[in-house]
């Protein structure tokens, strides 16, 4: 079920995307690519935490 319009939906989507980036980083063979993906995952995770903090469920 998509919660795009729901307050917590955006944060949940960001968390899922962050996990996807972490998984991709683990599989990356290029160290620079791995670091880039890890950083992107970290930023998404932080953003999702801010979103969920602004929209308590």
Helix tally equals 2
Structural class: mainly alpha
Uncertain segments of ≥5 residues (pLDDT<50)? none
Radius of gyration: 13 Å
Helix content: over 70%
Major sheet: none
Order of SSEs, N→C?
A: HH
Number of beta-strand segments:
0
Oligomer: single chain
Provide a concise account of the structure shown.
The protein has helices at 9-27, 31-54.
Describe the structure.
With 57 residues, the protein is mostly helical. It is built from 2 helices and no strands. Helix 1 (9-27) runs antiparallel to helix 2 (31-54). The protein is elongated, with a radius of gyration of 13 Å. The mean pLDDT is 85.
Characteristic terms for this protein:
single chain, 57 residues, mainly alpha, 75% helix, 0% strand, elongated
Write the layout of secondary structure elements.
Layout: H1 9-27, H2 31-54
Helix pairs in contact: 1-2
